[in-house]
Amino acid sequence: MPTNNGPGRLPIFVAPPNSNSQRSPGYVPGRVAPVRSPPPAKAPPPPPIKPHGPPLERQATFSVTEANQHRERAKSLQQRKNTFICCGVSIGAFFLTLILVLSLTSGDVLDENCPDHNPSLSSWNPGHQPEKAVVVRRGHLFRLDASATFHSLTIQSGGRVVFADNKDGTKNITLRTHHILIEAGGALHIGAPKCRYRSRATIALIGRSDDNTVPEVPGLGRKFIGVMSGGTLELHGTESVSWTLLTRSIPASGLTTGGYAFQKNFSRGINLRVVDQDTAALLLCERYDTYDSRNDSRRLSQLLRSLPDGRIVTLAVGDSAVKSLLDDTKKAIEDRLGSSFVYDLKYRKAWALVSVVGGGNASCSEDVREHENHDTGGRALARGNFTTVDGVGFSVTAYSEWKNGVAISGFQVDAVDQVVLNLQDEVQPSWKPGHQIVVASTDYSMHQAEEFTLLPCQQCTSRQVKIQGERKPQYNHVGEILDGVDMRAEVALLSRNILIYGEMENSCYGNNKCQFYNHDTFGGHIKIFGNFSSVHLSHVELKNMGQQAENGHYPLHFHICGDVDQKGGYWEPTYVDGLSIHHSFSRCLSIHATNGLLVKNTVGYDTLGHCFFLEDGIEQRNTLYHNLGLLTRPGTLLPTDRNDSLCTSIKDKVYQGYTPSPSTECKAVSTFWIANPNNNLISNAAAGSQDAGIWFVFHSSSTGDSHGLVPETKAELTPLGIFYNNRVHSNFKAGLFIDKGVKTTNASAADPREYLCLDNSARFRPHQNANPSLPRVAAVIDTLISFKNNDLGAWIRGGDIVIENSGFADNGVGLSFASDGSYPKDEGSSQEVTQSLFVGESQNRGTNGGQNKYWGPGGADAKMRTLPRNRTFPIRGFQIYDGPVSLTESTFRRYIPTPERYTSAVGLRAFFGRPGQWFEENDLDGDKNSIFHDVDGSVTGYIDTYVGRADNYLIQHPGCVNMSQWSGVICSGRYSQVYLQTQGAPSLSLSINRDEYPYAPLVLRGINSQGAPSQQYQPILMMSKSYTLHWSGPAPREIVLSLINFDKDDWVLVGLCYPSDTTFQIMADIYDRQSNTFDDITDYGTVSSLAELEKRPMERKYFFDQTAGLVWLYLRARHGREGHSYCTFKGCERVKVTATTSSKQTCNCTSKAYPKYSKTPSAVVPMPPLNTEPCKGCGAKQLVFSSEPWTSYLQTQIKSLSSKEEQRGDTSSFITVSIPVSYTVQKQVQTYISLSY
């Protein structure tokens, strides 16, 4: 991954004290350094020395004594004895090896990749010893063959425990213990990357937080798996698709038509419903009073004979139906519906029928109940089960009865408790019956996520599963690309064949935050310490993990591990792959002072506090790839985890009873909490959090356990890693949030806020090598899909930042950019959106319920739908908060106002806002100064024009076009800002008059709080015009005027109001913000008249008109700018006015200045003509913004005629497919269908 290596200030991790941990043959160790290198292989013995020269001739012996013969016989006997011993040893070794092989499951073949196949392992069946603290030491190489219970398990000094497996995966091993501690040289293996565990392995972590008979382990506490320095943990379950996307929507109730239910008392006669056999839609609803009307009986007969074969018909008697029921009608019911009971109906006899037209008696379900004493003694109930063309099973039910003198009849069309899901990936056969899955919300509320159990499904394809839940789907889950934005719900597998879970109590107890939660929050946890030997986890389920009352006890916690990839000496970089972490009590996965970790295909579901959590602000080079987090709830550990009530209730770490402010210090719980920008986020999904989906936060120094380790992180200056193809939806506050820091000091009298609460001081401004003197590096947000976020699709502050190829839909506000800050803090940065799509209200209307609070009309069809914030909230696409920002080649659609609210594709508060609930008084300085540049005329129809607020005459000329529906004007010209910073005049308002519109001043209050010792005003001015500036009190003794966004030779002429006895010192300089130095310091001289000043505009001169009380001077840019910088390449050009006066009078010179200096309004740049030609090249090139950006789409339009259109004389129906010129058959292509009907 092309990310930088960071400052390199992390501690050096030493080698584990014992690096000779045992490993199975063929296992590749993950750590190669600083573990000591293995000794060289023992050299083979040297070959025998070959004698030189010819061999010696053998001497013949003819005479052998008897003693010699005896010795020879003894020697020969010993040789034969030795031979027998060797053979015996060899045979013994052979049988021993055979026994070891046979001890494996019958039919298994030794595989060196399988840790449980290691011949050096001993079979281990320790049984259940709940009081025994088991220690596995050097020489203890155990294969656990059966379930066991211990008080605790410690593996150390070369000891090893391997879970046994077999070929058919029928092992079922459960290990119950208070904790497992893996110390230096110890190893725990369940499967391996090349030999996946096939059976069922379970580790149950047991115990209560208040059980003092179980001592706490330092740094770990209770109920844990701990991997210390030099330890090895290898867990590898059966591979499966971790999560995927729906490819067909799941409607609420399981039926696209929504189902049907009806019940009524005394609905006399035969009640009839006709149901479509293909869709389960209700086609006809009628009542025929066959008790009192022969004509109704005839109508029923005619209907039955006219219905096409295959239609589903259901009948139910209400009260009585036989008095006028004609024989011809009975015959039609018998012939068309296969009824056996219709001829036997009697007065007030209950009868219900469900049948298929033309299906005969075999398709007919019917039931009757006799009436006696105003009661039928039960319900006549008929039911038929059917399947839609989409494979969804549904039932049609009819019932009829008398109960306590009341005639009751009714119908129900409902999905059966089995619904087939169509999925993007091939999940079969790894997703098995009995497995648990979760389907994410595709609405504003994350609480519409639903869990289901998989059922057997022989007819399902490899991309289908059948579900059964405690109830049928309660909410709509979108499985389509709607209006060009991919809104398909994520579907995650929660079950794995390796399960680690915490055994829980039935309710909360002790000090487990029971004042906030009614359930036990003391789960298990896994903690990995630095300098471990090898840790890899794949396809493991972690359930009921994490401890809400204990900091640092998370389901999976990499704790101050430093570099865990090849940079840190690991041959096999550390990774987490395919984990399912659900129903967690404190986070999902914590990356704490750890770099280079790969986390992929991992699901975090239903957790308290930040889910995927980068902790101390110094974590870098980590890659989060294709992970899913959903249902992220508030927690208690950090201020940023807390919601309103938790924020104000937890005050043990604030200063002397201070009450925190939830909106500014808390309310930031996020599915992905990224505390350093130098990390990679690729193809992740944040599918529901109480606050944010993905939040980039900036630590000014290392925090927590890393406090002081890196005194200055420079996180704000660090370039962003890869951000590509991420999804954010169903979050309450924001989908993506890039802004703010955390407080890095403890609470004190000076600042009573809690340590690590949100802090508004950080601004993201990435530069090369995190060095502000080097060029900026644009942070690129590529292919972001953001929908159904209640407040903001994305909020991003800082620069340079580029968002491209992204889709936003159904957000309260699609995207809002905020600048790095105000000058002089911000030297000028750019924010750009390009090639993106914004949809106001899509065809995803949502489901009323599931903690969605607001339901009302909206969208192009004005139908009822879920709404963000509330019914009056003004929906906006791209909100211009401040600038500079650039919006190019993007498409906006379906922004339609309603009688209750405004809607805007491109929104500045000024253009449609009015005083009221959402815009306060709409009179802030930023409201009044709002302006944007329509470069190509694609918004206004006028090329190279500006749109501003209608009541701001500083920017207007007579040729401007008034747009009353925007409360705005379209004007031509050149515009820049002057920042006026004052000293010594608190709480002043500034009134600015343009000489051409002297009686329509713009009044600014300043951006700093009232009463501040200094104030800053930021008016936007039309260039090449003159203005006068007036005050609501005595004039400031010092004013600094900074030229912002002035291009070279841009100018304005300004007259500042002062008392007539004022003396001035006026000087110009260039301020270098980075070095805090001043250059080109020049004093202004005086001239005797304004006319003389106007003749010498290039000189630094001023004229003081004592009669009018105006000091006149030019503000002219003498140098050019680079890019989007506020100031010139040499620095910020400024003019400083220091005034000395004894007067305390209010300095408003308007009455003296005008009409003396009034001028006739004119345009510096004439208005261009209205462009009536269609915009060429406007909008995004892409038709579809999906989470599969590698897939190409063809736009297909289908128009089919409805009966109403035919009645109107419309005869047009068509199918069109638009094929781009660049299309090639080699591309993968899907069809994007736009329907007109």
Task: Characterise this structure.
GO terms for molecular function: carbohydrate binding; hyalurononglucosaminidase activity. By secondary structure, the chain is mainly beta. The relative contact order is 0.06. The longest helix is centred in the N-terminal third of the chain and has 38 residues, at 66-103. Among the domains are: 111-236 and 498-538 and 540-577, no CATH class; 243-247 and 423-493, no CATH class; 260-416, no CATH class; 974-1154, no CATH class. The chain has a 42-stranded mixed sheet that branches. Strands 66, 69, 70, 72, 74, 75 and 79 form a 7-stranded antiparallel sheet that branches. The chain has a 7-stranded mixed sheet with strand order 68-67-71-73-78-77-76, with no helix packed on it. It is globular. The model is unreliable at 1-71, 103-107 and 1222-1237 (pLDDT under 50). Strand 24 (450-455) and strand 25 form a beta hairpin. The protein is built from 10 helices and 82 strands.
Which features characterize this protein?
disordered N terminus; mainly beta; Cell migration inducing hyaluronidase 2; 42-stranded mixed beta sheet; lectin; CEMIP/CEMIP2; 8% helix; hyalurononglucosaminidase activity; seven-stranded antiparallel beta sheet; single chain
Mean pLDDT: 87
The rounded distance between the terminal residues' Cα atoms is 48 Å
3D shape:
globular
Structural class: mainly beta
Detail the poorly predicted runs.
1-71, 103-107, 1222-1237
* Largest pleated sheet: 42 strands, mixed
